[in-house]
Amino acid sequence: MAIHDDFVMTIDEDDDTVMIHEEEEVIDDDEAQLKAKKVKGEKKKQKKEQKPTDFDSGFTFANDGGGNVGPVHAWDFTAARGMLKASQTGDVPRVSIDDIIAKKRKENKEKAKANAAKELEDEKLDDEDKVEDAIVEDDDEDLAADGFGGGAEEDEEEEEEEEEENSASDTEEEGVSDGENVEDADRDSDEEEEETESSKAEAERKREYFAPEEENEARDHQAFSSMNLSRPILKGLASLGFVKPTDIQARTIPVALLGKDICGGAVTGSGKTAAFIVPILERLLYRPRQTASTRVLILCPTRELAAQVHSVAVKLGSYTDISFCLCVGGLSVKSQEAELKMKPDVVVATPGRLIDHVRNSTGFGLDSCEILVMDEADRMLEDGFADELGEIIKSCPKSRQTMLFSATMTDNVDQLIRMSLNHPVRLFVDASNQAATRLVQEFVRIRAHREADRSAVLLAMCRKTFKEKVIVFFRSKAAAHQMKILFGLMGLNAAELHGNLTQEQRLESLERFRDGEVDYLLATDLAARGLDIKGIETVINYNMPTQFAQYLHRVGRTARAGRNGRSVTLVGESDRKMLKMAIKSATNSQVKNRVVSPETIQRYKKKIEDLGPQIQDVMREEKEERSIRQAEMEVRKSENLILHSDEIYARPARTWFQTEKDKKKAKEIGKNDHKSKFGIKPEEVKKPEVRKKRKERKKSNNCIITIIEFVC
Ligand SMILES: Nc1ncnc2c1ncn2[C@@H]1O[C@H](COP(=O)(O)OP(=O)(O)OP(=O)(O)O)[C@@H](O)[C@H]1O
């Protein structure tokens, strides 16, 4: 056994070095091949056996947040899809990016066939030159009959076979030995103490601010049946396959049923959604029914998460008479208005659209709101959300119950005061900043001068190792989109998810990924929080996120509810601080180092470079298609204005809470808030070393673009 020097993750000769040792057996070539085959066979066998439920049957429910494997999909986008249809007005059929890529691939195949045929033809002609009295025309026909196309197919298959073979050897080269644990002692002793201990004064403030969680409320509930829940709620839980409550559910439900304010935190995938929905439904069963009113408001930071929470609530409440409404941007305002007029008991919303309705939909207000929930509450306190939240809170009665939840929940009193909580109970199940227990975190080192290798590393890993149920996170929409083109041209089945897509495209991508129609979801942080897609095996971070909370949420899309999962993060030199925090977050889970061999990287770099002109072609065609669609939309808009001008101008003008400019400003303030929270003063941004780090990050983010530019 030998320890590989190459496996040391951080910058050499650095005092702060965090050592991640990986032991690798040194084996000779023959033995290596035999062993690789055996390992591959065993892995396949394990995978096959694991496939139906990669769930640890010995897993302790109440300690770990897991439980029975629930139904295949606890949620769907039925409500969102319904509103989508209502908002569509005779859409023109569009050419999707997939169509353009497929066309390009077809062209490539045809070109390859033609080239192969031409080569054969040339060879034949060469041969014929040697033969006297050759009949050129006839021979040409014969050649076409048996040679055209066949050669190209074979070539491609050979290429595929080559891939497979390489795959076997490269898996070994990648040399990630299973079952390796990072030595905690090393980790702890080498790390500088970065956590800022709350001062005594702050601890005192917290003691005063939070209500104590009373012993009898938090008693160990082994089953939902011991929680005094009504039959319709128990039936709803059973229909989703929930038998035992998870830790956060066992602690939250009794306290929430008492109407107390709650500030709750538990790791990703530990069942926080049901933790707040169950007590809400139970309380609503006892509502007065004479007059309808909206009593519960659940706020989420993204449309997709809101749609998911709405769907879970509908399913859990399917044996009750409680009504629900989904109220998010990107979907039909009109149909939402119509639903809100009926005063649904529960509204699940994103803040912007909710404020729009509060201001502009007659007959809808929040004055009857009795329970306000904020999912991903720490996110809602950031960026542009803070002002919108202030506006929403102002519209809700003071006497309401407020519940805040997140895997990275803050207990910072100053921030919470803004939410005007009433002596909240602090229910933090796991130590803060902790990753899920069954998550294996892997890191791939990208050296400073190798930033341009990122795309090749990603493609090599996806082509060879991570072949299905993979989410890849990118820092920018452009990077996710360009990678979608690259994946497509390489024959990898991927969907993209980011803010540049229409709402319909966003839902479609998620559904296709959820249903296994595509193997990869290439996303921005839009998909980082809350989304619960069963069976995600791997999360790849193309870049390390800039906020640690975001890292935890991203990797939390896998290893949920007691299942296994793996994250692979490409770590640049400027990400060392984040890397250390990530390693620290892995108290029970494993940390490993992944190495992709330089030869593999070079081979994939070459492939990407060869595809450069085609990427450009696809992007150009896409741009043209977009311009046509835009022009058609303008024409339709003008026609509508002419046809329905009376009705349009008779409507009262909608008012907006914030202009785009206001929103931008609020976002800037939010960013600065965040920076100061993490010890970066706004003025520090101007310092050269900070500028350099930012530049490096930007460089890694744009490396796909660099490759394309380099080639073209
Ligand atoms: N009591 C339970 N028994 C079995 N499965 C459960 C139970 N509660 C929740 N689950 C399942 O656990 C998974 C994760 O739940 P959920 O999405 O609520 O997690 P979360 O804590 O909100 O995660 P995140 O922090 O990522 O938003 C879901 O698939 C859900 O169906």
TrEMBL record:
Bias-annotated ranges (Basic residues): 35-48, 689-699
Cite the InterPro entries for this sequence.
DEAD/DEAH_box_helicase_dom (IPR011545), DEAD_box_RNA_helicase (IPR050079), Helicase_ATP-bd (IPR014001), Helicase_C-like (IPR001650), P-loop_NTPase (IPR027417), RNA-helicase_DEAD-box_CS (IPR000629), RNA_helicase_DEAD_Q_motif (IPR014014)
Question: In the record, what terms sit under GO molecular function?
Answer: hydrolase activity
Mind telling me which SMART domains this protein's record contains? Answer: DEXDc, HELICc
Which E.C. number(s) belong to this protein?
3.6.4.13
List every stretch annotated Disordered: 29-68, 103-220, 661-699
Which residues are listed as membrane-spanning? Answer: none
Its protein name is RNA helicase
Native source species: Phycomyces blakesleeanus
Q: What is the lineage of its organism?
A: Eukaryota, Fungi, Fungi incertae sedis, Mucoromycota, Mucoromycotina
